[in-house]
Specification:
Length: about 300
């Protein structure tokens, strides 16, 4: 997949079959549209193109609102789109000035002149331009003038999947990572870098890799203990992970720490990916470090049982 930074750098794409949107999480609902794009491109001897906006429009239009957390960083989204089979991903910088473009201007500049779109495929209720004035009906009425076909994925086709980014976020906020996986069609994951911690886990016999996630907007599931898979250096390992403030130890900052089973390597500053399999328990404050250690032993048994199939 070719990633293009900015709409000014768009090359000549043969028979561009296009869709646009934020596609946060690239869940089952999104995949309905994306697979249609890929299939149509092959049938018309063309290329599948996703036009996406970054940063997320809400970060630009409502900067004071700090509650929105995203299911995917741009890098993760690109990896997921490539896995679906998309040929081109065009990253359009979303600014306040861009948000003021009329639907007519957006369509003429981006879809007609830049992309020379052959066919546009969108999900139901998708709209373009300032005040979301560019509806499917508007596109359909003007398709001959614009010079491209327009197709809308019916509401029923997407609603039948029963998936939305909001539903997935809510599941993760409640620690229901297995439910989120069902909506996504894969395990929910985070990517980060291993950083040095206070080595308290090592003293308890459960050394941990502390994970720093650079993107503050990335959604981290509810505090607690989880059975997870960890990828380091191209290899996957079974592991358990804790998200939270570690109330038994210090109770200060929220941290993410992973104990990788049967693993004894120095991995500071290395990238790490975590896939969440199942929530084990909520975080709690124990009366002593011995009590915490005893619980960690129980967590390990539970995690290994849940991870048998992985």
């Amino acid at each position: 997949m070719v990633i293009i930074e900015g709409h000014q750098a768009i090359p000549n794409i043969q028979n561009a079959i296009v869709t646009s949107g934020t596609f946060d999480g690239v869940h089952f609902g999104h995949q309905k549209i994306l697979k249609k794009i890929v299939k149509t491109a092959r049938e018309l001897n063309g290329k599948s193109v996703v036009l996406t906006f970054w940063p997320h429009p809400r970060f630009v239009l409502f900067p004071e609102e700090k509650t929105l957390k995203l299911l995917s960083t741009f890098k993760e989204k690109a990896q997921l789109l490539e896995a679906v089979g998309i040929d081109y991903l065009i990253k359009v910088e979303f600014t306040r000035a861009f948000s003021q473009l009329s639907s007519e201007t957006f369509i003429q500049n981006m879809l007609v002149e830049q992309l020379k779109t052959k066919k546009l495929i969108i999900g139901y209720d998708h709209r373009f331009g300032k005040n979301r004035s560019g509806s499917f009906e508007y596109l359909k009425e003007n398709s001959e003038r614009f010079g491209f076909e327009v197709e809308e994925i019916p509401r029923q086709d997407i609603d039948d999947v029963g998936v939305s980014s909001t539903k997935i976020r809510q599941a993760l906020f409640h620690g229901e990572v297995d439910l989120a996986a069902g909506f996504l069609g894969r395990l929910y994951s985070i990517q980060g870098t291993v950083v040095e911690g206070k080595k308290i886990g090592s003293k308890l016999g459960f050394p941990t890799a502390n994970i720093s996630v650079a993107e503050e907007f990335k959604l981290i599931p509810k505090d607690g203990a989880y059975a997870v898979r960890a990828e380091v250096g191209g290899h996957w390992y079974k592991a358990m992970l804790n998200v939270g403030i570690r109330p038994t130890v210090d109770g200060l900052n929220r941290v993410i720490e992973t104990h990788i089973f049967d693993f004894d390597q120095q991995i500071y500053d290395q990238p790490i990916q975590i896939e969440f399999v199942k929530h084990l328990r909520d975080e709690k404050k124990f009366d002593s470090l011995d009590d915490l250690k005893a619980q960690l032993k129980k967590d390990k048994v539970s995690a290994l049982t849940l991870l048998e199939e992985y």
